[in-house]
Amino acid sequence: MNAIQRSLVVGCTAALLAASAVMPVAAAEAPTGLTRAQWPFQATEAGRFDEPWAMSFLPDGTLLVSERRGALKRYDPASRRKADIGGVPKVAYAGQGGFGDVLPHPQFARNGWVYLSYAEAGEANTRGGAVARAKLTLDPNGGGTLSELKVIWRQVPKVSGDGHYGHRLAFGRDGKLWITSSERQKFDPAQDMQSNLGKIVRLNDDGSVPADNPFAAQGGVAAQVWSLGHRNALGIAFDAQGRLWEHEMGPAGGDELNLIERGANYGYPIVSNGDHYDGKPIPDHATHPEFAAPKVSWNPVISPAGFIIYSGTQFPRWRGNGFIGGLSSKALVQVSLDGTLPREVARYDMGERIREVEQGPDGAIWLLEDGEDGRLLKLTPKT
Fold it and tell me: Which CATH superfamily is 3-381 part of?
């Protein structure tokens, strides 16, 4: 452990122990995936996209869908009309990089703001995640245009390589913008407060830093940080109680579902419930109780991507459950978040890599398949 890591552990001990008060629950042997005949829902194809990465509904019921190569689409599920949004920023498309998340402001109907995350090129063949805010003017004929685009946040530093951007977005009840910033496969930055890699970031909606962030007094990028010690965080969602949940890909094993606490350190790369890809072991969370441990971990992995906590009416028994897209698992993974024993309760075998999960205005669940010609699927109760 280097000097930066030691100082972080000492400085955050109280918060870390509090975050670890509820012991983690490692997922038992993975449940058998439920086949189509066993699904309690029907999946209807509603469209197709080129390497879709994220989607969000607008108040009028149309969808914004980001495509990783750099396009932003507006899609009407009712008419199946698809149109381009103009004025999108240039993205660095390579490896895992490209266009990322798209999220309307909670008051979009009033202010027209949308937030975009994407991989941005830097000097000397470096790249990093960026988040921009822009005004979206909708075209009555189906598309729209972005204006007043301004980058309000960047990963620091930009580094070489094309992996582990994270850059998932969410708004909390407090009106703050939350960003998952993965560690770009560089390990140590997740514990370095001079970097915002491997962190959960909390900002005001204009990109400024809230004065009540846990490390605000440190200034610089440390002031942006809400929690640290994360690997590749590709899902973030608030539950009905206002608690923030996050999932992230582990290394060789050890995918995690975490309950995010103020100022907590989740331990990567010092601890993980998985090991390095070369087989070198990483100490488990249980060996370092000063770090906040996952509430659920998976080994074999599910490769989580996309995340909702269901609150709709079409599946009333599922309210309060989390739904996670599975890439390598090619599944929709259902987790119970109630009580003191979060756990996986069902796994639906979708047959394709699931990149994104969203809840529709009518309470249906929507999925985006990963890759070229990825399908948009609408899940409704089986009749």
Answer: TolB, C-terminal domain (2.120.10.30)
